[in-house]
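Key result, reporting period 2: structure in, sequence out.
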């Protein structure tokens, strides 16, 4: 009898704790972040120049600098966690991370799952190809093989408006890559003839590639994309604090200096 009572009490305790966990997911996490003085940011550490690992293993990039500048204003340390980019919203929901911040594009599908900060940068989808392939527009990709990153905004654009590019390529299906580095290796080897990629990445990568001048960057008809920070919808205070910091960093010129450091020009968007 006592054993049965203990089992029932244990089950009630588990139920109560799981209920508390569900409630906590709906709470604003700003007070917790302030108390531990650390915010955890999920990122793909191969997205040059937004957030990537240098040869010495250290993290660098536009988003790395900007995130540190934002939370420095509040005396909070930034802990960058490398995640599977295709699982980013799940990681956020499960509270493994506090923010998604790594060239994260605002779109309607993501807006159903997360809240966004103000836009801080605009990006475009471009087509990178070997100059020998003579690809001057998306129409020249007819019957050719296209590469794109898995779970990227480029793939989202490709699927949302297939008539612009997807319907033209071989088998109407792109080759998917876990990261752009793998895609560029296949582009160099001729296994794909075009790579749909973020302009911020293409611009930086080709400028630092030894034989970067062998490639052509072609505009696409896809709409420009807004980069913002993703967070849980319950994090109203965290959202407000990030937006306030963006405004202050824009006014004092910090955002301009970070942009010029990584892009050679001021590409920031006024908050």
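The corresponding designed sequence is given below.
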């Amino acid at each position: 009898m006592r054993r049965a009572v203990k089992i029932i009490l244990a089950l009630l305790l588990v139920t109560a704790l799981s209920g508390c966990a569900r409630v906590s997911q709906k709470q604003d996490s700003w007070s917790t972040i302030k108390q531990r003085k650390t915010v955890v940011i999920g990122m793909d550490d191969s997205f040059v120049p937004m957030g990537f690992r240098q040869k010495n293993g250290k993290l660098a990039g536009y988003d790395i600098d900007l995130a540190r500048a934002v939370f420095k204003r509040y005396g909070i340390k930034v802990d960058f966690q490398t995640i599977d980019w295709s699982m980013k919203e799940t990681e956020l929901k499960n509270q493994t991370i506090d923010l998604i911040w790594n060239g994260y594009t605002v779109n309607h599908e993501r807006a159903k799952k997360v809240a966004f900060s103000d836009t801080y940068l605009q990006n475009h989808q471009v087509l990178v190809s070997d100059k020998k392939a003579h690809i001057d527009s998306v129409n020249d990709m007819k019957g050719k093989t296209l590469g794109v990153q898995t779970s990227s905004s480029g793939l989202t654009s490709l699927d949302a408006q297939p008539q612009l590019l997807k319907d033209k390529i071989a088998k109407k299906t792109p080759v998917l890559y876990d990261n752009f580095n793998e895609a560029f290796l296949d582009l160099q080897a001729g296994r794909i003839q075009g790579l749909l990629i973020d302009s911020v990445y293409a611009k930086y990568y080709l400028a630092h590639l030894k034989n970067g001048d062998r490639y052509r960057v072609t505009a696409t008809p896809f709409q420009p994309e807004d980069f913002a920070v993703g967070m849980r919808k319950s994090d109203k205070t965290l959202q407000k604090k990030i937006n306030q910091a963006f405004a202050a960093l824009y006014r004092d010129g910090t955002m301009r200096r970070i942009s010029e450091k990584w892009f050679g020009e001021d590409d920031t968007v006024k908050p």
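The longest helix spans residues 2-24. Confidence is low (pLDDT under 50) at residues 1-23. This case is discussed further under Risks and Mitigation.
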